[in-house]
Design goal:
This protein has about 260 residues and is an alpha/beta fold. The chain has a seven-stranded mixed beta sheet with strand order 4-3-2-1-5-6-7, with helices on both faces. Strand 6 (about 130-135), helix 6 and strand 7 (about 175-180) form a beta-alpha-beta unit. It is built from nine helices and seven strands, in the order E-H-H-E-H-E-E-H-E-H-E-H-E-H-H-H. The chain has helices spanning about 15-25, 25-35, 50-60, 85-90, 105-120, 155-170, 180-190, 210-220, 240-255, and strands at about 10-15, 40-45, 65-70, 75-80, 95, 130-135, 175-180.
Length: about 260
């Protein structure tokens, strides 16, 4: 009998613009280059917090832009979708959660709302579905974002708080693992590219910023070394790609500690 075609890995983010930055761009291409199948979903509301997601589950609000990258790689965007509808759309292997960026290092806000969101989602997905947490990144040093005030407008202070919160989340039985994008970006900032990984002080730039995040997700989901992946986006130089892949690989090895990039 002919061998069955390998099953696609299916990942859905309940997120915001930071999951857009990390998941909607380049991750599919990295998987394709490794001959891996993937289906990516992102439930998007700009700036959405865990508290907003919880409120939306309570009211079953169809207020998300549901971005989906199917096996053919052609993204489809569907407006006015609820969390329940997206959860039912595929037999998801992984569901990703994250806090709004300005509160990403504020443990109290996560501890208050994430457990309720996890409980709700668990009632609607198969037992095999794993929950993962997206560790987001600290703002650029000169970021104009008002939420930067939560961290005394210090990038390293913000990074430290994000590490503390995600370490705690990693110990929760309900969460299978943390995807250390925040550390990957911080690693990459030690390189010759410097503190230029965002386009506005907080969202990742459209080329090597987003590529660094995608490499981190790729390595964590597939357990494959991003440095050995042949894909490099056309708008990224070989040097930028190497830094992005190195930064992601080192973040997987040490998810809560900065590793300098040569």
């Amino acid at each position: 009998a002919a061998a069955e075609s390998p099953k696609a890995l299916k990942i859905l983010a309940i997120g915001n613009s930071f999951s857009e930055d990390a998941l909607e761009n380049y991750l599919y291409d990295l998987a394709l280059a490794a001959d891996k199948k993937i289906i990516i979903g992102n439930l998007y509301i700009g700036g959405a917090s865990l508290a907003l997601h919880v409120k939306n589950t309570q009211q079953n609000k169809a207020s998300y832009s549901y971005r989906k990258v199917p096996e053919n790689g052609i993204k489809v965007t569907t407006p006015d979708v609820s969390i329940a509808e997206a959860l039912a759309d595929e037999d998801w292997d992984f569901i990703s959660f994250q806090q709004a960026s300005s509160a990403s290092g504020q443990w109290a806000t996560i501890a208050k709302d994430l457990p309720e969101l996890l409980r709700y989602v668990r009632t609607l997905v198969p037992a095999h579905t794993q929950f993962v947490y997206h560790q987001t990144w600290a703002y650029q040093q000169d970021s104009p974002h008002e939420g930067f005030n939560n961290y005394q407008r210090s990038q390293l202070n913000m990074y430290k708080h994000i590490m503390e919160t995600t370490k705690k989340i990693s110990r929760w039985k309900e969460v299978s693992f943390v995807v250390p994008v925040g550390t990957a970006i911080q690693n990459a900032r030690t390189s010759t590219l410097g503190d230029h990984f965002t386009r506005d002080g907080y969202h990742l730039n459209l080329d090597y910023g987003r590529f660094t995040a995608a490499c981190t997700w790729y390595e964590k989901l597939f357990k494959l070394d991003a440095r050995k992946n042949s894909f490099t986006p056309s708008n990224i130089s070989a040097k930028q790609a190497k830094i992005a892949k190195d930064a992601a690989h080192k973040a997987i090895k040490k998810p809560y500690k900065i590793s300098p990039i040569q």
